[in-house]
Design goal:
Number of strands: 2
Strand content: under 5%
Mean pLDDT: 83
Radius of gyration: 20 Å
Helix content: over 70%
Structural class: mainly alpha
Number of domains: 1
Low-confidence stretches: 1-14
Strand order of the largest sheet: 1-2
């Protein structure tokens, strides 16, 4: 049931540098690249607003760490459902239309969060935002994977992934500016209000991004697959292993990133503004990690990228959370922590795209990635509830190290897909 060959014609291989792929892109590939990069970056902006303002919310509405973490879990659980639904929808109405719908959805509900009157309302709005948040990645990753040629796919999709760090960085800068200009009880509402910005991306996508020809051809000549087609015996092993890979990748990331601002506040005694440099170095490391992962995904292969970065993430997380180090060393360790805890995502999009045949690619990629998100979504809540008994540092380490160990094992069990050529 696989429709991908395993090699790329030698004549088509471009330069091996990180940026060489961009010079060799067609206009369609470039427009798709910028549309997905913009959407993913602004997706990161919207999602990271909540972890940045969570201490304010907990103080203003007297919310405990457990319920505050559960709100993030609810968002991620909803995003898992939204991601699978968007994958199925993209197989039926197209990648581009689905991408537009999801961007408009999460922009609207991020904006509405600014008007929440109590924590229960905020949880509901964040859950509704999650449907679009999860769907945007599913549609965009498939769109990129099918539009970009195989010899650039890892670098191009990985470079798009780096836009998440840019969106995260914009959120941190906005936090520093807004919290300096406004009282905390107003500043968090202003933070959510800027989440409407991604809606502007839809105007660009409508005018400039076509549906991939391979997807159009597949929908024309094939019977619509069953919603359960990804559990067909021919692809069941791939679906299971890819789902476990995603659990490890996303569980580890959420365990580290979501509670890190609160960890710096509680364990390192840093204020909201005082933690900004620590988050900035983490984001810089994350951005460099994404770009390095993009290059390594094409140079070494997707599997080797996952194996190396999972081991690096385990080592840096243990050092960051378990060693009795001064704040100056914590600041320095932020760079490798961001590098290893984020960079492997550059290989996730192309890898999942290449694992599944075209007719079920949207649903296969949407399900496996978002199954991982659903399970990983439990980690922020569990860490929040365990914090009172074992502390933030220990709780983060337990879940993050376990997740990255699973990531390593699943990557080892899956095949290498570098240079696969996709067909209808």
């Amino acid at each position: 049931m696989n429709d991908a060959s395993t090699t790329t014609p030698k004549a088509e291989v471009a330069g091996r540098g990180l940026s060489s792929f961009y010079r060799n892109m067609t206009n369609t590939e470039r427009r798709t690249f910028w549309a997905c990069a913009g959407g993913w970056g602004l997706d990161g902006l919207d999602f990271m607003i909540y972890p940045l303002i969570i201490v304010t919310i907990m103080h203003q509405w007297s919310v405990g760490a457990g319920p505050a973490g559960f709100a993030a879990t609810l968002t991620l659980l909803a995003s898992a459902v939204g991601g699978w639904a968007a994958g199925l929808l993209s197989d039926r109405i197209g990648r581009v239309k689905t991408l537009q719908i999801t961007i408009l959805w999460f922009s609207l509900f991020s904006f509405l969060c600014a008007f929440a009157q109590n924590f229960d309302q905020l949880m509901v709005l964040r859950a509704l935002l999650g449907f679009g948040f999860g769907g945007e990645w599913a549609a965009g990753a498939v769109l990129m994977g099918e539009t970009i040629r195989p010899q650039f796919r890892g670098r191009a999709v990985g470079s798009v992934q780096s836009a998440w760090a840019i969106g995260w960085g914009i959120a941190v800068i906005a936090q520093a500016i807004i919290y300096s200009a406004l009282p905390a009880e107003t500043a968090w509402r202003a933070m959510f209000a800027i989440g409407v910005i991604p809606a502007l991306m839809v105007l660009f996508i409508r005018r400039n991004v076509p549906e991939p020809e391979i997807a159009v051809a597949a929908r024309k000549k094939a019977v619509r697959p069953s919603i359960l087609a990804i559990f067909d015996p021919a692809v069941l092993r791939t679906t299971i292993l890819a789902s476990l890979l995603s659990v490890g990748a996303q569980g580890g990331y959420y365990a580290v990133i979501f509670w890190l601002p609160a960890f710096l506040h509680a364990d390192k005694h840093l204020s909201v503004v005082g933690s900004t440099p620590y988050l900035a170095i983490l984001i810089i490391g994350s951005f460099i990690g994404y770009l390095s992962g993009a290059w390594l995904a094409d140079r070494l292969g997707r599997r080797m990228l996952f194996l190396l970065f999972s081991l690096g993430a385990i080592a840096t997380i243990l050092a960051y959370t378990q060693l009795p180090i001064p704040n100056e060393v914590t600041f320095i360790l932020g760079f490798p922590l961001g590098f290893f805890a984020s960079g492997y995502f550059s290989g996730m999009g192309p890898f999942l795209t290449e694992l599944f045949p075209t007719i079920i690619r949207g649903s296969g990629q949407g399900f496996t990635y978002n199954f991982g998100r659903a399970i990983g979504a439990l980690f922020p809540a569990l860490i929040g509830y365990l914090k009172s008994s074992i502390g933030f540092g220990n709780a983060i380490a337990i879940f993050a190290v376990g997740a990255y160990a699973l990531f390593f094992i699943a990557a080892f069990a899956l095949p290498e897909t570098k240079d696969r050529v996709l067909t209808a």
